[in-house]
Structures are given as structure tokens and as C-alpha cells.
Please model this.
Amino acid sequence: MISFIGSIGRWGLGKVTSLGRSTIMLCHALIGRPDIRKHFPLLVKEIHFIGVQSIIIIIVSGLFIGMVLGLQGFNILKDFMATGSLGTLVALAIIRELGPVVTALLYAGRAGSALTAEIGQLKASEQLSSMEMMAVDPLRRIISPRFWAGVISMPILSMMFCLIGIYGGKLVGVDWLGLDDGIYWSGMQSSVDLVDDIGCMVIKAFVFAIACTWIALFNGYDCMPTSAGISNATTATVVQSSLAVLGLDFVLTALMF
Amino acid sequence: MSEESLIKISNLSFSYYGHQIYDGIDMEIPKGKITAILGPSGTGKTTLLRLIGGQLTPDQGEVLFDGINVHALKRAKLYELRKRMSMLFQSGALFTDMDVFENVAFPLREHTRLPETLIRDIVLMKLEAVGLRAAAHYAPQELSGGMARRAALARAIALDPDLIMYDEPFVGQDPITMGVLVKLISDLNSSLGITSLIVTHDVTEVLSIAHYVYILASGKVIGRGTPDEVRHSNDPRVKQFINGDFDGPYAFHMRTERSYLEEL
Model:
């Protein structure tokens, strides 16, 4: 019994310690004057990797989620003779919840896991240590551009997801099932608010971006420098990011709407 | 030692996950000389280099680099100090996303604002010094182990440091590469006057070039002196290590609480 309580305590202490270490890592990475000449090209490279290369998966997922919403929504609303609300339904569901959440989950799987594995590998092959010994701070050089790239990319990816999702809903509802084009768009226009809905979507995406990127970077930076360590860290990134996104989404939704 | 020393280690103790690695060691690394640190595997020789580089913090004692206490420095000052030292890692630790040329240019690009033509010239000079000018545009994955280590050496001397620390430079090399590395290390030392610190357990190679030798075992310095003094030492522990004897004060088996018979 005592040892059980003890093990809970150790687990808790371990978690708190790693939270502290991760905060220190992030602070060292972010605080300080950026050197535009050196850091800007690195940032662009990372935005390309994290953001641009995620566009395909975001667009395809957005399209299908929008189409499914359009199909389900139309069939259900038809029973209530309310198919005119399809535009509102699709737009609000995607902008308020699905857009930022699904983007963040996809981001954690595609970019987050890659970041963890990459940094873990850099650590295991002593490249981080050798950089440190060359008087180049790996936190500034490796961690910081990746963090900012994630924070910049995710809101944009989220917006793309929403755009394509709404278009997917239109594709099914209007072009396939025969809803009137004007009704679809005007319903949306009258119900979606720029600040309350789209603004909140961007804030959500921003918060998820910070959480997912931070988790991914820290897991890589803190992993055991072995192949098993890297694989565990990658798994941990996907699991922790997904749970963090879903948990944070509930909190943010409760606060916002 | 009468000569001026670049590094002075006093009363250094360090433990790692509850294992005592160093127990109050004192060392002096003379300036402009090649110093070898010998010891069996697992005595934490690499740890010593990391302690000197400030990547690890000792439990007690201090490391003075040119009179500056490495572990009392703030982060920014420590990075400033590291520009004067460099380390050759066992794996080479070349950056895998850059070719050899870019790897050697990396410290120059990070710490200087030299024009591109000058960087190119310096990189080619450094690569020529290690005999790899022809491999300038190879990816690190295309290099053999020995070539990777030489490329890493070119990178380590790119900023003309005061100190190079070699972590097991001879491990896993064929005899020719080993000979090349030995010659390179001694040439770099004599031509550039760089203080060299070699951590190794390849006794014969290193005794041929070192000016001064320390032998570490069980967290303590068990022998020190010039290569000749060490070769003719009467200490049974030093003798066993230098001659590679199976029998001696250091047992082949790790010490355990229970005897073999009991455990079976």
C-alpha cells in the first residue's frame, strides 16, 4: 500500500519535473534577441516542412469532413424540412470545432511526430552536443525556429481546413443533393460572425499550435538517446498532443461560446 | 609541472545516477602540448571532456580554462568560452542535413561574418589539412567512419580553437586510418600550436605522440607523467593497463554482492 502511494508520488514528481524542464527549455529557446540574418532562413525552411508539406493532408481531410457533414446534415435536416440551415450547420460545426481540432490532430500526427523523431535522432547522434560544443545553442538554432514555424503554420492550416470543409459541404448539399446555392451561402453569411466564430477559431488554432509543437519538441529534446527512446518519444508526442488538444478544446469552448 | 597550463582541474567529483564517476581528481593540461587521458572503458573519460566543456556540472571541485571557472559562468558567457574549445566526438557527429563543405563552414557562418569567398577558402584549407578536399560535396552518409572523423576534425579546427578534445579518436579504425589520425593530431598540434587532449584506451598509438599522460581508473588518477615515465611505472595498476595484462589488480569480472556459486 505504502509503496503504491509512493509510486504515485514518484510518478507525480516525475511529471512535475518534466513540466518544469520543458518550460525551461521553451524559455531558453524563445527569450533572447533574434538574429534575423541567421534565423529567418531557418524559419522559412521549417515553415515549408511543417506547414507547406501538411497542406495536402489538411485539404483532403477538410474536403471529406465537409462532404460528410453536408451529407449527414442534409439527410437529418430534410426530416424537419430545414435543409435551408445546411450552410449554417456546416459552417458553424467546422469553424467552431472541427476545423481547429481536426487540424491539430492531423498536425500532431504528421508534423509533431516528425519533429520529435528528428530532434531525438539529432540528440542520439550527438549532433546537439556537438553543436553546443561549437558554441551554437541548439535551443536557439534547432528548437526555436521549429516552434515559431508551428505557431505560424497551424492557424493558417486551420483556416484552409475550414475553407475547404465548407466548400465540401456545398459540393454535396448544393451540387449533388440539389439545395439552392443562395440559401446555402446566405444562411452562412447571416450566422457566422467574424469575431465570435472565426476569431475564436484562430485563437483555438493558436493555442493548439503552442501545445502540440511544445510537446513534440520537448519529447524529442528530452528523449533517451536510443532507438527505443526515440520511438517511445514519438508515440508519447502523438498521444499527449491528441489528449491535450481534446482537453484544451473543451476548456476553450466552455470559455468562448 | 612547470609549464603554463591551459586547463586546471582541482578536486573534481562527479556522480551520475548514483554512480560515483570521479572522486576528487586533480589535473593540469599544459598549453600547446598533447595530453593523453588513458583508462579502461567505462571510467567516464568522455564525461571528463563534457565536464571541461561545461555540458555537465560537477558535484564538487572546479575546472579552470585559462583561469576562468567554467561552471561559474552564465549561459551566454559559457557559449562565448566554448568558441575557444572544440571537441571531436567519437561518432564524428557531422550534421546529416548538410554536406561536408557546409559542415566545416557551419562554425564560420555561425560565429563570423566573413564573405562567402573567404569562407570557401578557409573551408578548403581545412579540408586540405585533413586530406578530404575531394570529398567536399559528399553527404556525411557517404563517408567511411575514418573519413567522417577527419571531416569532423576539419570542422573542429575551423575556428582555430585553443583546445581540441578528442573523444576516442582511434576506436574502430583500420591501421592505416589510425596512422593517418595519429599523424594529423600531432601535425595540428605542432603547426597550429593547439592544445590537444586525447581521451582513449589505445595505449600504443597515443603514447607515440603524447607529451604527457594521465591514467584514470575507478574515479581517480592512478598514474601520470611523460610517456616514458608511464611505460616504466612500477605501479601494478598502471602496468596492467599499459601492458594489457589479463591478470592484475583490475578484475575481468564486475564486482557483485553475491558469489557466482550462490547466484547459480
Notes: The longest helix of chain B spans residues 175-192. The mean pLDDT of chain B is 86.
